[in-house]
């Protein structure tokens, strides 16, 4: 069975990060696709790029989201981790990080989102901490787009160099993701929708 996703996106689900991702992902997807095609890599899903990058906003209503996350992590080549102090406070983020670091070297690609993340000491990371608040059309925005292009180049290399998906049954040993059961948010009541 082949991989379902080239890249798994790991991040703390907080507005500071999700709002930034909404601006980051469109140019990143486009550049990543071009970098892969340039290297004659067969890109998935040419029309909407949905299987190029897995983001948890693809989980549909009614799906068992911890299981969907487990399968997506298992069936992704690499992980792009958006790292800031809140990342390490999240059991989900820590489990996602561990899932890819257990599988092998160079599969975990951290983006430094905050300028003082001690957990990344000794590990190579891509620093976007100066580009977390941007206005489109400004000089900082243009510099951000250059950084996104360079990041896409590095991610494309990691995707191409990732080990092939193993033959046979699903490699469950690849998944260290034991996602804790989360209580329902206060605004959602148990029972009927």
Q: Could you characterize what this model shows?
A:
- This protein has helices at residues 15-38, 65-74, 85-89, 91-103, 139-161; strands spanning 5-10, 53-54, 76-83, 108-112, 126-127.
- It is of the alpha/beta class.
- A five-stranded parallel beta sheet has the order 2-1-3-4-5.
- Helix 1 (15-38) links the parallel strand 1 and strand 2 (53-54).
- Helix 1 packs across helix 5.
- It is globular, with a radius of gyration of 17 Å.
- The N and C termini lie far apart (36 Å).
Task: Looking at this protein, list some descriptive labels.
single chain; about 190 residues; alpha/beta; five-stranded parallel sheet; about 40% helix; globular; disordered C terminus
Q: What's the short version?
A:
This protein has 193 residues and is α/β, with parallel strands linked by helices.
Low-confidence stretches: 183-193
Radius of gyration: 17 Å
**SS class:** alpha/beta
| Major sheet summary line | 5 strands, parallel
Portion in beta strands:
5-15%
